[in-house]
Amino acid sequence: MKNLNLRQLEAFRAVMVGKTITRAAELMFISQPAVTRLINDLESRIDFALFERRKKRLYPTPEAHALFEEVERTFSGLDKINIAAREIRDFRSGSLAIAALPALGLGYLPRVISEFTRGRPDVSVSFNIRSSQKVSELVATQRADVGFTESTDFDIGVEAELLLTARMVCILPAKHRLTAKKQLCAGDMDGEVFIGEGGWQLTSGDIDRYFSNQGVKRKIQIDTQLHASVADFVLAGAGISIVDPITADRFSQLGIEVRPFTPPLEYKFYVIYAEGRPRSRLVVQFVELLRERIASYQNYK
Which CATH class is domain 93-164+268-299? Predict the structure, then answer.
């Protein structure tokens, strides 16, 4: 027996479902003679009759009913494949592994991810918050589809694109004397209690060198690891500091004061991918959404 033709099986299924050649032709969007020809070709291939012809009507044989059960199972699987393909095309299913540095991962990215998954119930997301170096490792080893870092010293096997260049800002307790100023410079912080980053952030060295070059002596009473931790101490009234604008924006809603710092200190976010690895449509769509949302921080404060 020759291999069966899918189009012939479609015609057979259409006749079984539609009951007539006319209805089958409508279901397949082809002519009635074309349906008849497909059915005849199928019977010729399988070498047994599927229908009895009585007064221009077709009546399924017992063999037709048996074959129809198998065909239905096959087409049910094809329907599931079609649905899956449509969902992938429309970004409604799939998986996305994201890794990000804390400045983005704490507070900001969860909102963007939530927006992205809304209306996509079958999209699964894994989300890791790590240091920039660890994020780079996860992406290079393909344990993350996309990563977000502040680092410019990337691992071999990683491709990077600039996501955002923003100005760092000063954060102060609500009733601090410096809140009377519309913007702050290094000299304003001479002698002030300053919450440091202890060298954990890549920008901390830049900040230290800047104040040293300006001859400004801060009183670093507390060192901590993350911009979010720095902001927590400022919120508690322990001192002032300088952080990225995204962290500052989140904590401004909790009561800290934010002021521009002049001259500007830049803070850069990068999006990174595994080198040479094709990017899924989900990754591309997510990064596009993030670029749209994060662009507002380009001129923050």
Answer: alpha beta
Q: Please, are residues 113 and 105 in contact by the beta-carbon 8 Å criterion?
A: no
pTM value?
0.67
3-state secondary structure of 134: helix
How many CA atoms are closer than 13 Å to the CA of 104, on its beta-carbon side? 29
Model confidence pLDDT, tens digit, residues 33-79 = 898 898 888 888 888 888 888 877 788 888 888 888 888 877 766 65
DSSP string of 221-277, one letter each residue:
EEE-SSHHHHHHHHHTTS-BEEE-HHHHHHHHTTT-EEEEBSS--EEEEEEEEETTP
For domain 6-89, give the CATH number.
1.10.10.10
- Give the CATH architecture of domain 169-264: 3-Layer(aba) Sandwich (3.40)
Rounded Cα distance between 230 and 80, Å, is: 51
Cβ neighbours for 40, distance < 8 A, ≥ 6 positions apart? none
Task: Parse the chain into domains and list their residue ranges.
Answer: 6-89, 93-164+268-299, 169-264
Backbone CA torsion sign across 183, 184, 188, 192: positive
Q: Do domains 93-164+268-299 and 169-264 have the same CATH topology?
A: yes
